[in-house]
Amino acid sequence: ASVRTLIHIGLPRTASTFLQRQVFPKIQGFNFFGVNTTFYSEPFQKLLYSDESLYKHQSRDQLIRSESENIFLSNELFCGQSFGMNATNRTRTALRLKQSFPGAEIVLVLRNQLSLL
What we know:
By secondary structure, this protein is α/β, with parallel strands linked by helices. It has helices at 16-23, 35-38, 42-49, 60-63, 90-100, 113-116; strands at 5-9, 31-33, 71-75, 105-107. It contains 6 helices and 4 strands; from the N terminus they run E-H-E-H-H-H-E-H-E-H. It starts with a strand and ends with a helix. The mean pLDDT is 88.
């Protein structure tokens, strides 16, 4: 079987916190990495915020040390959301995630955006 990487892009107001706490950690066959890893670790801080002049590509193994080959990453900031829903550089983050996790499958949860308003 091939190695799989799932990346949850936590769009605003789509139950990301609930999914991260109650659903994603229970998916069998995957080692789940939520906000504690995908935001608070130094490698992910660099991926999310480093200026292009300072950023050096980080491989999957540099970002995630996992005994399980299949990993599931989840973070609301992957979509560029920040405090007050102002966008950070979402294109840069998407390109860096693609470079570090080629072939990853993207998980999106959508909702009626009118209800968001």
